[in-house]
Amino acid sequence: MRKRLFWLFIFCVISTGLAGCEKDYYGMGKPFSVSTDMLPGYTNAEIAALSADNYERFMHASYLVVMDKFGEVHKIKISADIKRHEWDFSNLDSSGMFKNYVEEDGSTKKVGIDVSEHQGVIDWERVAPNIDFAFIRLGYRGYGGGGLVLDGYYASNMEGATAAGIPIGVYFYSQAVSYEEGVEEANFVLSHLGEYSLDYPIVLDREDPMVDDARTNDLSVEQHTEAAMGFLDTIAASGHKAMMYTNRLYYSLYVNTEQVYQYPIWYAQYADEPDWPYEFAIWQYTESGEVPGISGSVDLNLQMMDIN
Length: 308
Hints:
Blueprint: H1 2-16, E1 24-27, E2 30-33, H2 44-62, E3 63-67, E4 73-77, E5 92-93, E6 100-101, E7 110-115, H3 124-127, E8 133-141, E9 148-150, H4 154-163, E10 168-174, H5 179-191, E11 202-206, H6 221-237, E12 242-247, H7 248-253, H8 257-260, E13 265-268, E14 282-289, E15 298-303
Parallel strand pairs: 7-8, 8-10, 10-11, 11-12, 12-13, 13-14
Antiparallel strand pairs: 1-2, 3-4, 5-6, 7-15, 8-9, 14-15
């Protein structure tokens, strides 16, 4: 498109002189002028729209365009060292309780939930027929004082899901500020696994709590990354599968994406379809799902890749 518009501009200059090039258009993010008097079949508005669409496609194919919590827009070059996904999200089916992805052969993906004490008492026997897996919060570190806390419903959720025959994994909400604190969090998780058998990974959940007094507020990208790697490396060294969960903002601006992509990725984006360029194992697409056996809303997830 850029070459075509360039030659249209040259044609305009030769045919009508610079005085005839008076119309403003949007190409590659910058306005330019070109006469369309000699272009039958195209209006000025149509060419402007095509040029703007071409620019947007170019940007999103090459950069992650992310707005931070202060409203500043960042353009981050997409890494050539992380595998891009090849999914066609026009294959998403939203007609059922869960979204699903329909393969060419008609097969679909696994669906699941993640829960914590916020869901209260869960009737796992009613939940079981509707899902393929569940992640249960084991605990969290407080964003203010930094203490390690066991989730109030961890034991009952583990027992209920196990008894109902649901494949499970666990996750921990981290507010570690160093590699050493990441290790401490991982060891806290390992010490509370007990005899529970896991079918899915142990997941590090790192997010910006978006509060003024969060202990992680002033960390650099390097410090956020080190804290994450302390947890992930320790879990992997224990023989368990390790995985990281977070959202588009955090993966883009808070950590070294190439480094954390050494581990399977659980990606959170509440949207009709994700716009993340890289592969991810699980997509959390809503926090407002409804599943029989759970009072109130629950997070819904679609497993895009094998991690068992």
